[in-house]
Amino acid sequence: MKTIFLCSMAVVLSTSTLFAHESAGKRLFQEYCWGCHHETAMAFGPSFESIANKRSRAEVMAQIADPDATYKSLGYKTNSMPAFSDLNSSELESLTDYIYKFKDKK
Predict the structure, then answer these.
(1) What letter does residue 38 receive in the DSSP assignment?
(2) Which of 102, 83, 96 is nearest to 21 (CA)?
(3) Is residue 74 part of a domain?
(4) What's the DSSP call for residue 14?
(5) What does the buried/exposed string (b/e) look like for 18-53 if buried means 16 or more CB atoms within 10 Å of the residue's CB?
(6) DSSP summary character for residue 4
(7) CA pair distance 64, 85, nearest whole angstrom
(8) pLDDT (tens digit, 0 to 9) for every residue of the chain, 106 residues total?
(9) Domain assignment of residue 54, yes or no
């Protein structure tokens, strides 16, 4: 009985950690990205679906943190994206994970 309880608690804790990480990414999207990006449709900027299908995780993270240094190498002629250098590494990972939720499942 004790083993079942411990296993159940482990599942609950790991699920809540994953949910917290996912909701952090969504919260960051709503705070920083929503004005220019949409999850699946083109807005002022490309959709997360398009970004996730076209860019590596490193490219996405670099573009978020320092777009002035990366926009040309990503094929853009100009940069209209602000830098979000105030995001810590955990937030940057959470936001990138959220973006990658919209990658095509092929």
Answers:
(1) -
(2) 96
(3) yes
(4) H
(5) eeeeeebbeebbeebbeeebbbeeeeeebbbbbbbe
(6) H
(7) 8
(8) 555 544 444 444 444 444 444 689 999 999 999 999 999 999 999 999 999 999 999 999 999 999 999 999 999 999 999 999 899 999 999 999 999 999 998 7
(9) yes
**Would residue 95 count as lying in a domain?**
yes
In angstroms, the CA 85 to CA 55 distance is 19
The domain in which residue 73 lies consists of 2-100
Region at 99 (left for phi over 0; alpha for psi -120 to 50; beta for the rest): alpha
User: What is the token pair recorded at 97?
Assistant: 């994970």
CB of 63 closer than 8 Å to CB of 74: yes
Flag whether 105 is in a domain: no
Total domains, the chain = 1
Can you give the CATH number for the domain in which 67 is found?
1.10.760.10
Length of the chain (residues): 106
